[in-house]
Amino acid sequence: MSFANSLYDGLFADPDMAELWSADAQTSHMLAFESAFSRAMGRAGRFDAALAAQAADYIASFTPDRADLSAGAGRDGLPVPALIKQLKAGAGADAAAIHTGATSQDVLDTALALTLRATSDLIETQLSALAQQLTDLTATHGTAPLMGRTRMQAALPITVADRIRTWREPLVDHSARLAMARAQVERLSLAGPVGNGDFVDVAVSMAQALGLTPAAVSWHTDRSGIVSYANLLALITGSLGKMGQDVALMAQQGIGEVTLSGGGASSAMAHKHNPVLAELLVTLARFNAAQSGLMQQAMVHEQERSGAAWALEWMVLPLMAQATGRALTVARNLTASIKVIGEPHKSV
Hints:
Layout: H1 9-12, H2 15-20, H3 23-43, H4 49-60, H5 66-76, H6 80-89, H7 104-141, E1 145-150, E2 153-159, H8 160-185, E3 187-188, H9 200-210, E4 213-214, H10 224-250, E5 258-260, H11 276-297, H12 307-337, E6 338-341
Parallel strand pairs: 3-4
Antiparallel strand pairs: 1-2, 5-6
Helix pairs in contact: 3-4, 3-7, 3-9, 5-6, 7-8, 7-12, 8-10, 10-11, 10-12, 11-12
């Protein structure tokens, strides 16, 4: 997944997060929904049990034509109708036990829930690792003096530990927020074509198979959980952006409160060592701050489904997740690159 073009992938791309949001991953999640749906409907007696079991196995091993899915998305506004057509074309008699009663939004929203579950796993791992790195940095350099600055002016002396604390503590809070956010988004969507379907006898079995929770009510048009999750991504990158801004200022010539290893060369001025990673954290924070505003627009659905608001999520949320994954990786690399932190500093 590239923000602009592949030339900048070395700067912006996070391969681990990109894989979670890739077309292959999304297709796999859609097939997981369809397989679990057929199997659960058979167990509930809504489909012929034998056909449903066969259909579920068939779907689980199916390899779709991705080019056809892309063309179908252009034609139908989403790839699910093309996927169901492909599945049924090769299913024979088992086609009667495929998708009937579900809707495209159930498929895509459940695929999103599965993606967000994996995304949260990665974010939590990275948050924990970064918090530990900052703890270790404090143990090594925490007693070193720094000049505290308010409104970018020299104020009163502090220690390195005081500065690092402002970087680390928000990460702990974000981990707690992430745990709450997961409960809102790691939910099965199974509400039928207009969101009022009755699948009580099917939902629990499906949710258990997929590792999700069954939603008490339809969330087809209630996007508050998804938008809240996007806001959390902006909060995480915002906190990392604060860290990056601090390091960039500390690295200024004439301030010299931090020494970094690594890249940052200038093509014209050999004496410069640009704080590229610190600057990138600021860039990613600002990017996600802007995108979270767009995600608020996804709250406004007309009637029982909005193609416009819903599709906006598909454009914005993957990039926000990518920016968050990259910011966490960059913050860890930046922390590891700090060789000296503390004096020299300016006195009042």
